[in-house]
Design a protein that fits this description.
Length: 434
């Protein structure tokens, strides 16, 4: 009969061997985990090791700070560009004060920010469900704005629905609706994307319907942006490349025919080619010529904030379409390059978030993010090109900076969706569910 003291040494090795087996199984399980995630976070490779637990921020903070910087700079520039409008005889009846436009712009940013927070709370799977319905609503609003006594006419264009606090522009909603609808369409038609005509013709018909309504306003600038968004998503969604470039060439030819068939569009093109000529300097080339004078006055470092001369009743729409010209005059080439770099970084980051989502097999979310990247990047490119005289004049504001309530509202909602895509990417990479 053995004593308790003799039994204890035999018990401890058994207990230790059990713990050793438990830790051994856990170690083998850890070794079986993939050491590298299939995507990248924040622009750098993310490696999971046994010594460093996975810690991921909830959203892309660098992207948020770039958006805030553009909003803040835009607010300052809207104040600078519009401060003298109250003294313009053209607006004598309106009785604008010095802070009229900047206060409204600040209110637009606040409303858009709250709307963006609400949009961020909605999962991407819900946006996928409502995408076709949102597209239908945008078409109905584009029809509604063309009805006399409902749509508001400004400078000969019927583009706005008066809503009291602001005039809502349905074409801005149509841009977001096209991003969502084209993305959901490509997910639903994934099995026929190699059959070009079956995949593209229904989408082309949708773009034609929207385009006809926009041209009736007229708003060719918005139509160009929406057409580029749709074609970009089709290409990124995997439509046959050779046939895609063929249809792209046909679209370019179609736009050229529309310009050639319209006398006032032809005149705008001629004015763009020679804005300082006697024929165009006081007509269609007036805005462009004064935008170029403003940027030329800015030289390298600018004349200083508030020192612009062109905003003093010389440059029309200085706080909207030609805000960048005033910025170039006051901040010079350095300011222009900084703005271009910020938009380039923002567009590149948005496209990267879209690639992350597609790598995680979330095709709809990835295409939405990339569609927003195409939208922001292409519209910024057009606005910069127009202000620098590299492109014909178009009625497109600079995203996040130019004065405009509906544009600000839809821009921030679209960027909130991108941040939502990034948030869901990070949740999935932590092993969670969305």
């Amino acid at each position: 009969m053995s004593s308790p003291a003799a039994a204890t040494p035999n018990a401890r090795p058994g207990f230790l061997s059990g713990l050793s087996g438990l830790f051994g199984r856990a170690r083998r399980g850890m070794d079986a985990l993939p050491m590298h995630l299939p995507v990248r976070l924040g622009g750098s490779d993310f490696t999971q090791t046994k010594a460093a637990p996975v810690r991921v921020l909830g959203f892309d903070q660098a992207m948020l700070w770039v958006i805030v910087a553009l909003l803040a700079w835009g607010l300052v520039m809207v104040y600078s560009a519009s401060i003298a409008l109250g003294d313009n005889p053209r607006f004598a009846r309106a009785n604008y004060g010095q802070g009229f436009f900047v206060l409204r712009h600040g209110a637009f940013i606040a409303i858009a920010f709250v709307s963006g927070l609400l949009a961020f709370q909605v999962p991407m799977r819900q946006w996928e469900r409502i995408a076709p319905w949102l597209f239908i609503v945008s078409i109905l609003l584009l029809v509604l704005v063309l009805i006399p006594h409902i749509g508001r006419v400004v400078n000969g264009a019927r583009r706005w629905l008066p809503l009291g606090l602001m005039n809502f522009q349905p074409s801005e909603l149509a841009k977001l609706a096209m991003v969502l609808y084209a993305s959901s369409y490509m997910v639903r038609k994934m099995e026929i994307k190699e059959r070009f005509f079956r995949a593209v013709i229904p989408m082309a018909l949708a773009v034609v319907v929207v385009g006809m309504l926009l041209l009736a306003e007229p708003d060719m600038g918005a139509f160009v942006v929406i057409a580029v968004i749709a074609m970009g998503i089709l290409f990124l969604g995997g439509v046959n490349a050779r046939m895609f470039f063929l249809i792209a060439a046909l679209v370019v030819v179609a736009f050229a025919i529309m310009v050639a068939a319209s006398p006032w569009r032809r005149e705008r093109i001629f004015a763009y080619l020679d804005p300082f000529s006697e024929e165009h300097a006081l007509g269609k080339g007036y805005q462009l010529s004064h935008a170029l004078i403003a940027i030329g006055r800015g030289e390298i470092f600018g004349v200083g904030l508030g020192g612009s001369v062109e905003k003093l009743h010389w440059l029309p729409e200085a706080h909207t379409d030609f805000l960048l010209a005033v910025l170039g005059e006051e901040f010079g080439l350095v300011g222009l390059l900084l703005i271009i770099c910020l938009f380039f970084w923002l567009t590149r980051r948005i496209m990267h978030i879209g690639r992350q989502a597609i790598a995680l097999d979330r095709v709809f979310a990835g295409l939405v993010a990339q569609g927003v990247g195409i939208w922001m990047g292409f519209q910024a490119f057009i606005n910069v090109g127009v202000n620098l005289g590299a492109l014909p004049t178009k009625g497109l504001g600079l995203p996040l900076m130019s004065f405009g309530g509906s544009a600000m509202l839809l821009n921030l909602i679209a960027l909130a969706l991108v941040l939502r895509v990034d948030y869901e990417n990070r949740v999935l990479m932590r092993g969670g569910r969305v």
